[in-house]
Amino acid sequence: MIIPLVVAALFGIKVDVDLPIFLPPIYASINASTALVLIMAIWAVKSNKRKLHERLMKAAILLSVIFLMLYIAYHITSDSTTYGGTGLVKYFYYFILISHILLSIAVIPFVLITFFRAITSDFEKHKKIARITFPLWLYVTISGVLVYIMIAPYY
After folding, report:
1. pLDDT tens across 14-65, in order?
2. Would you call 27 exposed, middle or buried from its count of C-beta atoms within 10 A (0-12, 13-18, 19+)?
3. Three-state DSSP class for 101?
4. What band does 11 get if pLDDT is binned at 50, 70 and 90?
5. pLDDT tens digit string along 54-65?
6. CA torsion 133→134→140→144, rounded to 10°?
């Protein structure tokens, strides 16, 4: 629970640094890559390729950590971008954005518990919680890409 609090606190910090690159398309690409890795990991475990599943899940966690670092770097060095769409699309955007934010906070403990149960070989409990973690995590990665696509014209 400390990770979301730290991220929220960092939004109050502004560092006067111009980043050498524009990060949102990079971290959106990382989200898309994470979604693909998660899908491949599910395929691997259903195909009884447990070692491949393990490597893919570790890659998904690593991608998520890299995403979080870049996301924080961007938001402490840049002003927030306001969505400029109107009508029904605006409501759709805010639904996706708010659900993305809330579920991105909620999924962190699920990922950590699921991973812990796997590395401690508690596979029965791992499978139980993974059934919740996977769709949450996949939704967060895909909705993050959608949020980027929808706000990109307003940067």
Report:
1. 778 888 889 999 999 999 999 999 999 999 999 999 999 999 999 999 999 9
2. buried
3. helix
4. low
5. 999 999 999 999
6. 150
Domains for the chain: give ranges and CATH numbers: 17-154 (1.20.120.80)
Token pair recorded at residue 132: 């919740």
CA 21 – CA 17 distance, rounded (Å): 11
**C-beta of residue 63 within 8 angstroms of C-beta of residue 37:** yes
pLDDT over 80 at 139, yes or no: yes
Q: What is the 3-state secondary structure (H, E, C) of 48-84?
A: CCHHHHHHHHHHHHHHHHHHHHHHHHHHHHCCCCCCC
Distance CA 41, CA 46 (A): 9
* pTM tops 0.85, yes or no: yes
Residues 6+ apart with CB under 8 A from 83: 90, 93, 94, 97, 150, 151, 154
Residues 6+ apart with CB under 8 A from 23: 70, 71, 73, 74
Question: Is the per-residue pLDDT at 10 higher than 70?
Answer: no
